Structures are given as C-alpha cells and as structure tokens.
Amino acid sequence: MKAILSGQAGVGIVVDGESISVVRVGHADAEPCRYEDVLWLLADASDISEIEVTGVDRAVDQLKRGWLSDRALQQALILLDQSEVPDIRSRAAMLLNSSVNQPGIADFVLNCLYSLRHIEAADFDGALRQTDETSGTTRRLLVELQRNRESIRVSREEWDALSAQLFEGNLEGLERGLSGRFRSRKRALERAMTLAGGFRWFARALSNGMRPDDDAEFLQSLNRKELADYADILGAVIEIWATAAEPAGRATVTIQVLGRPALLKLRDCARTLVNSLGGKALERGTTELLREAVEVWGRQGAPSEGDLGEGLADAVRHVAHRWLSESPGGQENQPLLNIWDAVNSLPPVDLHRLLGFARFRIGELGRKALGRDAEDLLAEAITATASGQRTWREGIDIRQHLYGAIRSISNSWYEKKGEEYLETDLVKPGDLSPLDQVSTALDPERILQAKQRLEQIRNLFAKDSEALSVVELLGEEWKPKEIQERLGIGAKKFDAVAKRIRRKLAAQGQI
Amino acid sequence: MKCPHCSGSIPEHSRLCPICSRDVGFPNVREARRQEECAALDTRWKEVHALALQQGRELVLSNFETAVKNSNAVLCRSLGIANWIISSGNILFGTFWLEVEAGIRLPEDNVFDRARGAVDATFFPFYEREIRFAALSLNGRGPEAYGACSIVLKDEVIAHRASVCDENTLVFCRRHSVIVGDPPPPGFRATWSDRCRLAGAKLYGSLSEHMTAKDFPPILLRQARATDEVDFIEVHIYGSMNRESIERMLVPKGVLDVPEDALLVDSMRRKLAEVGAGLEIYS
C-alpha cells in the first residue's frame, strides 16, 4: 500500500491495488475517491511525497505530521513578515512555539527557512520582539537564522543561478518523452535538498568560512534517502554550487561580466590609491590591492550586475583606507585618501568636462605648454591636490576645486613660475637646488626664442650688408667701438647704421 | 483552421499563426467556437427548450440560464495552499501538472498521468500545460470536497480565454468512452459567453417548476462530501493566473475552530486586501 501525501493540502491519497481512497486531516476515516479526483485534490500543492504505508492509520499519522510541519512553516513565515499586523504575528509566534517543540518540526522549519528566497526581507528583530522567555526553541531558531542570513542569501542565489542543464543527468527520460518531468528535476532536487537539510548545512558551512563540499555535516546531509534518486548528478551540482558560493569564486565569477573599460577604470583607481599611499602601502602594489578588494567584496556579498563596477571601486577604497589606518601613523594621511576617493568617484562626464577645460587652457598656452597636453594638465591638478600642494577646502565641490587648480597651474606655466613642486623634493643631497641653478641654467625656450628672433632680423637686413654686420656683432655682444674698429667705420657712420636698424625693427614691430 | 489574416493553416494548439505570427485566439476557445460544436450544442439546447415548453417549465429554465450568465469560475484549494498562492505575485496557480511533476519519487508511469494523458490528447492536444481548471459557480462556492477555500476568479481576466465543458473532463472521457486520439463528441463545450446555454442543456432535468434564484447554485454545482458525488461544469482557462486574478475568497466558518487555520484566514484577509480582493466567511 502506498500513500501520496501533501501536508500543505492536508490530503492524502491511499492506493491499495486498484482501490483508491482519500484521507484528510481532522478526519479519521478514509473516503472512497476516483482517479479522476486526485489531480483536483492535489492541485497546486508543492510538497507532494509518496511513501509506502502499512495501513490507512499510518497514512493518517504521516499526513498529520506533514500538516503540522506545513502549518509551523507558515506560522514562521507570518512571524517574519514585516507587513503582517502585530496581533497576527503574535498569534503566529504562540502557535509556532508549541509546534516546534514536537519531534522533527523545528528541524523541518529550519530546513525550509534555510532555503528561503529573499531572506534579507525577513524581519528578524520584529519576530524576536514577538517572542518571550517561554519561547526558547523559537528564539533559538530565529537567532540562528538571523546570524546566518547572509550565507542563506548567497546559498539561495547561487542555487537559483545553477543552469537547468546541470540537472538533466542522463537523457533516458527525454527519450521516453518525459521532457516535462525533466524540466522540473531541478525543482524536485531542490525540494529533496531542502528536506534533507542540504541548504541548512551548506549555508552554515559558508558562515563558518568553510567551502561547503569540504564540510563534514553538509556532506553527511547528502547521504539522506531523499537525495538517493539524484546520485547521477549530485556530485557535479554540489561542486559547481560550492565553487560559485565561496567568496573568492563568487567574486571572480562576477567580475568576469565587467567590461574592459570598467576594469581599466578600476585598475587606475587602485593605482592612484597605491601611489597616494606611498610608503604606507608597505610595498604592496596595485595587484595586491585589487586582489584584497575582490575578496572583501565577495565576503560582503557581490551586488547585482548593475552595481559591479561601483561595488568593486568601493571595496578598493575600503581596503586602501584599511591599509592606511593599519600603517604606522597612517591616520595623518587620511585627508589625502579622501581626495583620491572624491576624484575617483567623479563620473566620466565630469572628468570629460575637466579634460575639455584643460584642453582649452593648453590651447591658450601655445608653445609655452612645452609639449605638455591637456591630460598632463588635468593629472597635474589632481596630483597637486592629492599630494597636498594645493589645498582642497572643505565644503568646496571637488569639480570646482579642480577647475581652479587647472586654471592656476596653466597660469603658472604661462608665467614660467616653474613647476608646482616643492624645491626640496627635487634636491638630492649634495646637488644644487633649482634656485642655485637659476642664474646659470640654460633655458631651452629662451635659447629657441633668441635663435628665432635672430633669424628674423637677419632676414630683415639681408640686403643691407652694413646693417647686417652690425646686427651680427651686436648679437655677439661686441661693443660699439669694437664694431667700428672691426668694420673700419667712424662713429657717425655707426650711428647712421644703428638708426637704420632701429627704424626697420620698429617698423616690423621687433622692438 | 485557416488564419483569418493570411489564410495559412493553423495547428490546433497554436495561439499565433505560424505564417504571419498574428494572434489567432486561444485554442480552447477556438475549439468551442467550431461550427460543429456550436451546432451540436444548439441542437441540445433547442431540444431542452422544446421539452421545457412542452412541460411548462420554460420560465424556470430561462431564469436559470439568466442566472448562469453571471456565474463565476471558482477553484477550491485547502487553506494551506490558498495562503501560499496569495503570498506573492510571483506564484502562478491553477495547473494540475507542474507541481505533481515536482513531487519527489512520484512514479513516472502512474495511473493519474495515464488518465490525464488520455484527456489531454482528447481535449487539449499539445497545449495541456497551458490549461487551468475551475468550476462554474453561482454563489462563489466551488466544489469544496477538493478544498475548503473557494477562490473566485475575476470575470474580466478570464472571459476571453475560458471555455466550459459539461463536467470534469476526466469523468467525461470515462463516461463517454472516449478513445485516446479521437475528438470528444460535440455539443458539450461552449465559450464563456455561451456557458448559460451549456448549463441549460445539461441541467434542465434538475430544475423544477417553482424554483427561484436561490435554488439554482446547488443545481449548477452539486456539493458532496465524497468527491465522486460532486458534479459541476468545468471551466478551462488558457494561460497563467496569479493572485491579482482573484476577485474574492470564501471559507466556511468551521475552519475558524482550528487555531492554525484561523491564523491563516486572518493572514489571508490582509494579503487579499493588498490586491483589492476580499475574504468572506460563510456558515
């Protein structure tokens, strides 16, 4: 004799050879029924199971147990539902408290709640407020679930993400034309896994920092009879599930969907933070920062795909801050990291505008830019700010600050005030400082300008050999008397030639 | 059948024309509109009206049919299932197939599937998974032998995709000795708008001369504690339904005596209110 039971429906079908009857919760006797009624009786039930029974009494007992279990689960869900009215939640807590003290019920409820979708929406604090000191088992159950809620969420999400193809196993069923049953095999295994406590031990292993398929209790739960029919696929399913759910694997898998621009931006973000940390990074580089950030991000629970880049950038900043705070005297540089945070947080459109402004300023500089381009100017503005050479005042928008820095730095380039660095930063022990060198330093721009100007003047006097000779000798810093002697001309003649030169230069705007 | 737009041939189970991809209607409704079906039903209906005229019961038959024009499609589920159905908008309900398949260790070659398969091959070839089943009711109470909670569906969300059959299709196939693969005898199906004609044709024999509107509900749907004594006109609805398809629910007062069930009823009232539906308790 076999019984097909649903605690949710409170109905059981007892099949004994060709005879079929229905048993119901609250009714001791079985009633005759037709095969045609079975699907109506079990429609929409999601907890159907089939067991061998020795008699109708046994079927009724099992049915009642299933019904109590289902009601306890529904009471727990009502208790955790924030949108439920307090009075109903309170009654649910009372009923649940008496249910969970019966053998097997607490385990059933826990096993089911560990596989719950959207556990993050469950109101554990509110549920605990509905319980009192007499609700020992219920409170323990709630506290355990609350403590493991993040692992429950991860377990559930990664289970849902498993491909349905994984569950197909061998294809005999398809060949028999049972494709519909095959499509729901994932769902059937999920139910079996729930009842066997698979979700519960999987999430617990994650909470303990273990890879679930290395956890003895989880592996033990897989030996339960409920899972016996899935031996052909269980190993592969568990391995992929566990790999996807462990923090590093979860993060790595998720990062693979990031586009190249987002990855490059992330790397640049990490590099600038490492640069700004300098020695306080303790010889750790961009790679180490990124690797650690991915792990942190994975442990926190990777967000949805739309937030990938931003979530990882936050993790990178978080790790950089931690490195800084852990370094000796690290807190002193905190404001500088904050500046990098602000700059790294700028949306692309703002950076584009800043670059446009830098391009405009470089255009204004012309040759005085000395080959530096707009990106150099923007980088200089950011670096000078992050290094503390340009003060970012509190309350000023970082964009406005950078516009000002670009303007100021480009002005100083135009005025040849020199680079925006501290002189002492550039001096090695024993070397001359820039100020020491200034009187003798060769200014390549001045040399170039002088050469160009001399060439123009030569061209101007190409047809006046006397004037040209005077100009050449003046250019070589000869004195008037020396020129007169060299050219064999008197003072009057020299004055006349000099006057011609001045007039022509004045006419050409050269003086 | 030919597509009314491109004149291409349309398979019986298709909703879209395979040639022009235009919507050609719900296959169950198309079947009920077939000329052969309509003509056979018309014959049955005329016969009972002629008989009613002869027997002086034309008025009560007309009153009955008028009442059935306002009948609803109702499903019956246990409280536990009803509460689950309305707990989320993501839960689709009404099908016989999917959940049974998801049940663990259910034998693949069980007698329920065999029976179901024969009916599907007869009534819903290749689109059986799209069909949801309900019963026609005048007072909102469905066949309670299948579950204490009656779920009344909104007329406006099913009228265009529903058809009706004389009785439970499984029972119908057995009673009429339908052979798998053969079409069911015509005249026992109707569109939603013609459900009153089908009801009149089927149930005229149960009407007596002095019956009034309050007497009609148990005629249209015969309640019984034993499932094999229940009788109703079966409604076939194409496509999915969720909690927003529900107009109201009815539960018997007796369930409130069980604290676990009373809790569910109060929770269900709140959940139904979220989707603008009501919950009624009846004695």
Describe this structure in words.
The complex is a heterodimer of chains A (511) and B (283). Chain A is built from 27 helices and five strands. Residues 171-183 and 417-443 of chain A have low confidence and may be disordered. In chain A, helix 7 (149-161) crosses helix 11. Chain A has five domains: 2-147, no CATH class; 153-245, no CATH class; 256-331, no CATH class; 348-424, no CATH class; 444-507. By secondary structure, chain A is mainly alpha-helical. The longest helix of chain A is centred in the N-terminal third of the chain and has 25 residues, at 56-80. In chain A, strand 2 and strand 3 (19-24) form a beta hairpin. In chain A, strands 4-3-2-1-5 form a five-stranded antiparallel β-sheet, with helices on both faces. Chain B is an alpha+beta fold and 283 residues long. Chain B has one domain (34-282). Chain B contains eleven helices and eight strands. Chain B has helices spanning 27-33, 35-55, 58-68, 79-85, 98-102, 111-123, 155-158, 169-175, 195-203, 217-220, 259-274, and strands at residues 72-77, 131-137, 149-153, 162-165, 189-191, 234-238, 246-252, 278-282. In chain B, helix 2 crosses helix 9. The longest helix of chain B is centred in the N-terminal third of the chain and has 21 residues, at 35-55. The radius of gyration of chain B is 20 Å and the shape is globular. Mean pLDDT of chain B is 88; it is low at 98-109. The interface between A and B is large, with 54 and 53 residues.
